[in-house]
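Lab manual, section 2.4: Encoding a predicted structure.

Procedure: take the sequence of the chain (363 residues), apply the prediction step described in section 2.3, and record the output as structure tokens. A sample record is shown.
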Amino acid sequence: MVLIRRKPVWLMMVGLTLALSACNPFSQADSMMDEYVERVARVLDGEARLSELPDLGRMPRRRDRRLTMPELDIDILDFLSLYGCQLQYVVGERNSVMGRVMDPLNSLRYEVRFITAARDCLPHIERKALKASVQDAIDGKRESLPVAIWNATWGAEEIETLFTLSKGHYPVAAESNPASDLSSDLNRLNRTLDALLAGHLQSSLDYLGEVHQRWQAEHRGGQLLNSANLLTTRLDDATAILQSRLEGRPLCIGGKPNNQSDVVRNMFFSVYIERIQPYMSDVRRGREALIRPLWEMASAQRGVMPESFSTWANRYLALEGAAGEEGAGKEGPSLWQELDRAMAEHTESWQALLAQCGLRPGA
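Recorded output:
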């Protein structure tokens, strides 16, 4: 007797799902947008020309982003005389073998602990010279705190993974906002950074390690940039087809619908309204949830921001109205401003074409 081994039902279903996904051009952002341009050309008797996607600039390298922290040396005899103050143990931690190789996050934590411990210790120091030395140390640490904050945020290794461009596009038809957890992290982080920069050092930094882990585990920043680039390019491709038809033979004569206008209208609602617009909305929600707080985190640190990073941020993080802000928009419109422009022009072109047949949406 020959035994026939049947595949588990769940395995067959997975295979079927993958097969259907591969056949469905609307399951992935790039194939969906290519298909959209081709369908617009088909129903309008035009030619589908898919432009090459512009290259996206990568975030500046870590060595170009990370700032040098000023070193602060306390004379060893003065340090030993601080016995009984917590500052003694904080400085001792920094001078240990592990302390000399602190990552940017732990370095920020150390800077905050130093300032706090030194302030607490100051009233207990009797020697005037030492007291003045510790006060100078506090002032120096306060002055260099923005550098530590920068290195623990934009200078961190983990944020590079958040913005990698190698993980495709923002998901299509996601059940929830894929950037919601990252957004919550960033809003909390921005509040903490604002407090630190204002001199309020009591805010807990314990959660920042989890924020860095999430940056390293998710790639939504780079995916949003990829999708903004894709949408801008393909919407412009489709707009060119619409404009070509607007400049040529009218879709309808005398405003009377015909067979072709019916086909165009059906494609407009079944593809543009039901497929493309929801994805554009998802990308815009992702922009508001993630790119906006990232832009705020960068803008709050312009005082120490390296010039190369400023150029990158103005191009890939700046949102509406950013071109008029000080230090922003000098390199021309940002990626997001270009997307807003492409979406507006595409909508206007559709409205003008459908108006030829008395089918303008909202009319």
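Check your result against the sample. The CA atoms of residues 33 and 234 lie 6 Å apart.
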